[in-house]
Amino acid sequence: MSQQPTSTASRQIAWQSVITVISAAILIGAEVFGAAFAGGWALAILFGLGDQGARILQAVLFAIGVFVMVGFIRGAQRIEPFTRRG
């Protein structure tokens, strides 16, 4: 059994890093989710799937966009840590 060392130093939120990551996530999220909706609509027209097919494709692409955004936030948090030792 291993125990994690306890830290006596408190952690503080690095607000500049948090704001930077959130700002980038808003920008990238608008592009990703906009592309998901437009792409679903365009593919449905291309393949003649109708309104129901467009909504299904948009939902699938939206779900893929969620995975992209989660990956972006995780990667950005490694580069710009949200906390620092105080």
What does this structure look like?
The protein is mainly alpha-helical and 86 residues long. Helices cover 73% and strands 7% of the residues. It has 2 helices and 2 strands, in the order E-H-H-E. A two-stranded antiparallel sheet has the order 1-2. The longest helix has 33 residues. It starts with 10 loop residues before the first strand and ends with a strand. The model has no long low-confidence stretch (mean pLDDT 89).
Query: Separation of termini?
Result: 29 Å
How much of the sequence lies in strands comes to 5-15%
Number of helices: 2
Mean pLDDT: 89
Q: Going across the major beta sheet, what is the strand order?
A: 1-2
List the uncertain runs. Answer: none
- Portion of residues in helices? over 70%
Radius of gyration: 20 Å
What's the total count of β strands? 2
Could you give a short account of the major beta sheet?
A: 2 strands, antiparallel
Shape summary: elongated
Helical/strand content category: mainly alpha
Layout of secondary structure:
Blueprint: E1 11-13, H1 15-47, H2 50-79, E2 83-85
Antiparallel strand pairs: 1-2
Helix pairs in contact: 1-2
